[in-house]
């Protein structure tokens, strides 16, 4: 849409009919041009990075030991000797993402296991009539007795 508006404006301008151009097309082109001008540096950076004129290769020569282990854990390769000397960055990113997903699944499973364990232990405590109220009252009674004994000792030592 923006390109067609620009071409219509350019054609009318070249033929000397600037005022005959539709105001909507000219206004639309001006708004699009202003939006594009504000994001132009970002577009230049992105195009330079995508076209590889930064001198960076899309392959990574040096694979860290963790990268090799991740590739093996995600079952991308069977053995460490099978890993080629050059790997695409996309292959490494995919392996990292798969490992992240596996770790998330593990965390979900451990959370569910913890919840089930807490429910079971709570039911067993309820059968034994081991409630928090009972435990707290016993603790407070024990603290009161200790405080009374300390006060008696302090009164006995004063006399």
Automatic annotation (TrEMBL):
<protein>
    <recommendedName>
        <fullName>Family with sequence similarity 162 member A</fullName>
    </recommendedName>
</protein>
<keyword id="KW-0812">Transmembrane</keyword>
<dbReference type="GO" id="GO:0090200">
    <property type="term" value="P:positive regulation of release of cytochrome c from mitochondria"/>
</dbReference>
<dbReference type="InterPro" id="IPR009432">
    <property type="entry name" value="DUF1075"/>
</dbReference>
<dbReference type="GO" id="GO:0051402">
    <property type="term" value="P:neuron apoptotic process"/>
</dbReference>
<dbReference type="GO" id="GO:0005739">
    <property type="term" value="C:mitochondrion"/>
</dbReference>
<feature type="transmembrane region" description="Helical">
    <location>
        <begin position="105"/>
        <end position="126"/>
    </location>
</feature>
<comment type="similarity">
    <text>Belongs to the UPF0389 family.</text>
</comment>
<dbReference type="GO" id="GO:0016020">
    <property type="term" value="C:membrane"/>
</dbReference>
<keyword id="KW-1133">Transmembrane helix</keyword>
<dbReference type="GO" id="GO:0071456">
    <property type="term" value="P:cellular response to hypoxia"/>
</dbReference>
<keyword id="KW-0472">Membrane</keyword>
<dbReference type="Pfam" id="PF06388">
    <property type="entry name" value="DUF1075"/>
</dbReference>
């Amino acid at each position: 849409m923006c390109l067609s508006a620009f071409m219509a404006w350019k054609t009318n301008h070249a033929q000397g009919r600037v005022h005959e151009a539709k105001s909507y097309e000219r206004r639309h082109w001006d708004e699009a041009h202003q939006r594009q001008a504000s994001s132009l540096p970002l577009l230049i950076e992105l195009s330079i990075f995508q076209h590889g004129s930064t001198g960076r290769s899309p392959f990574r020569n040096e694979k860290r030991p963790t990268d090799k282990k991740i590739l093996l854990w995600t079952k991308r390769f069977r053995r460490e000797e099978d890993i080629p000397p050059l790997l695409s960055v996309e292959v490494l990113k995919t392996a990292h993402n798969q490992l992240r997903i596996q770790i998330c699944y593990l965390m979900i499973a451990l959370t569910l296991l913890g919840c089930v364990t807490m429910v079971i232990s709570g039911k067993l405590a309820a059968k034994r009539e081991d409630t928090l109220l009972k435990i707290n009252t016993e603790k407070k009674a024990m603290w009161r007795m200790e405080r009374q004994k300390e006060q008696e000792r302090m009164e006995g030592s004063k006399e």
